[in-house]
Amino acid sequence: xxxxxNYVPGVCNIGKEEIxxxxxxxxxxxxxxxxxxxxxxxxxxxKGVRFLTFIPAVISAIGFLQxxxxxxxxxxxxxxxxxDSLEKSNKVDNNEFVRKDKKRARQIIYYSVLIGIGVGLxxxxx
Length: 126
Known about the structure:
Layout: H1 16-42, H2 47-50, H3 54-69, H4 73-77, E1 80-81, E2 90-91, H5 95-125
Antiparallel strand pairs: 1-2
Helix pairs in contact: 1-3, 3-5
């Protein structure tokens, strides 16, 4: 059964189970970020290479941002939403809704990359 009651174009395209999944991804990304940076420092890796800390930081940021915004970037780009069980998505058919969803998805990706770059730069400086 398609649950369209909670879907708000460009605002909310995932339900509780999907939100929790993204929180877990954010936590895993955060742990990987700290672990990556710690290993770089421990093994005295050059400061330039430490910038690679941005990769797990992007993973963390995209997980936490999607959870906070109740919006999956992938679903937004793929014209889908899900308020049912995990991995069971529904299609967005309205062109205006698709436009709003894709805009929000691009914002989440953009913000995540900016956060990742910021973390990478901090890793280089510290």
